[in-house]
Amino acid sequence: MSEIVLADAPGDGVLSLKGVRRCRGCVSCLTATPGACAISDSFSAEIPGILAADRLIIEVDIGSGRVPADIMKAVERLSNILEAYTDSGGNIPLPMESAGLREILFRVAGRVDDRDFEDEMVKNLRKGPVETVSFEYN
What we know:
This protein has helices spanning 42-52, 69-83, 117-125; strands at residues 3-7, 15-16, 55-62, 103-110, 132-137.
């Protein structure tokens, strides 16, 4: 099983989410370049690898009780990319077999004050090829 780890802090074998830009709502990921983000930043460069992996692990350190902004921006952008595998907005869905990503695991350090955190992440990311979104708490 291949996996990619994203985190808001850099580490060995971990893709850092520092500096991820917010989605600008251009919908190019559904229309002009289905499954690819038009924003030019380090996260866009990682999207093909994320989609090719079987599992994405998102490490979240919630020291303040709130999910870090870089994580939320990455989730928003990945959610929009996953829409390309659905008929959202009338687009022709990308074939599910063109992506390996089937599972997303959140490894959460700390306590989340937002009671809707899990529901929101599942709603945003369990679409297209993703079958499972799960959570581990430390």
